[in-house]
Amino acid sequence: MSRLLRFGVRGSGFGVRGEMPRTPNLVLRTVLPLLIAVFLTGCSLSAVPTATPDATPHPPYLWPYDIVLAQPQWLADHLRDTNLQVIDVSDEAQYRLGHVPGAVHAWWQDLVERNAGTYGKLAGQPDREKVFGNLGIAPETTVVVYDRTDNRAAARFAWALWYAGHPNVRLLNGGLAAWAAAGQQIERTPHTPTRIFYRDLPDESVLINRCDLSRRTSDPQSVILDVRTDTEVTQTWGGTMTISSIPNARRLPWTSFIESPKTPAFRSPDDLRQMLRNVGATPEKTILLYGTFSNDAALPFFALKALGYVNVRLYDGGWAEWGASSSLANLGPPCG
Asked: Which of 121, 206, 221, 236 has the fewest CB atoms within 10 Å, measured from its CB?
């Protein structure tokens, strides 16, 4: 029998597990992975959600394309659907501390390519098929993804699933913190999905590579959004990245899309529209997103999609690729 409880536990957030990608440079192979692990763990320590009995649920805003979001009440109403799969992408220890009833566990970094010259890039097709197949995701499955920190890991996992040809995926708006604040139950019983074969059919319309992005820096129909925070912009990761930005990019930190890292529900549609309009990111434009690493840009991706933006693409290499010194990363010749 499932043991249900109210959410009030604390944990260490998501961190880095396993080896980093292999690169020719010793700095990237040794120092950078340690820095990333310390940084991600440190951020999570300050962003672990808690809920008190008097916590106020997030307002149920009306979204133009709400099919990409799962509000806590919507998820509660559909938990018993036979074609629903809820995925918790926190680390396994936190998953066992408490999760949405029926949720299965996945580790978001299993979708990170470990042999890439840049940390954070999406894993290749065979790895994606293995991860999604192990989760029992069938073509008709509605997938809801969340984590218990700032929901960036969940957004990145959900974006990867979308890219792999499964757009029937929703991000739990506000993550586990919003679920708990809405008074919903938390359980500790782990669940194991039934493995099936997953066929990966990439949707290139939600991804942009470095060369294609370099050709869009002066395109009047495209808007490049740099979603790094002020702190992230100044980080060099031991000298592996320069302090700058992609030409003509407009700054709009990922934190500005949500209420707060501890309550990572999206701000109201009206607030987001005004914020985006202020930087020229209007719906008729193609919006190109990048952060330090790929997981930073995935949260704004879902906000834009929920607002009804049609053309939104994520630069998976991020500043980790673009801003790397050519002597430290094998980026190849400049794009023509």
From this structure: 221
Domain covering 204-322: architecture: 3-Layer(aba) Sandwich (3.40)
Averaged pLDDT score across all residues of the chain: 84
Cβ partners under 8 Å of residue 288, min gap 6 = 208, 213, 216, 222, 223, 224, 225, 313, 314, 315
Q: Distances from the Cα of 201 to the Cαs of 171, 198, 211, 317, in angstroms?
A: 20, 10, 22, 20
Q: Do 300 and 225 touch, CB atoms closer than 8 A? A: yes
Residue type for 301, please? F
128 with 72: CB under 8 angstroms? no
Residue 156 has pLDDT above 90, yes or no: yes
Q: Residue 210 in contact with residue 322, Cβ under 8 Å?
A: yes
CATH classification of 20-187 is 3.40.250.10, yes or no? yes
Domain assignments of the chain as residue spans, ordered by start: 20-187, 204-322
Secondary structure (3-state) at 33: helix
**What is the per-residue pLDDT for 218?**
94
Q: What is residue 117's three-state secondary structure?
A: coil
Tokens 């930190």 belong to 253
Same-fold call for 20-187 versus 204-322:
yes
Cα 237 from Cα 42, distance rounded (Å): 15
**Each residue's pLDDT tens digit, 200-219:** 999 999 999 999 999 999 99
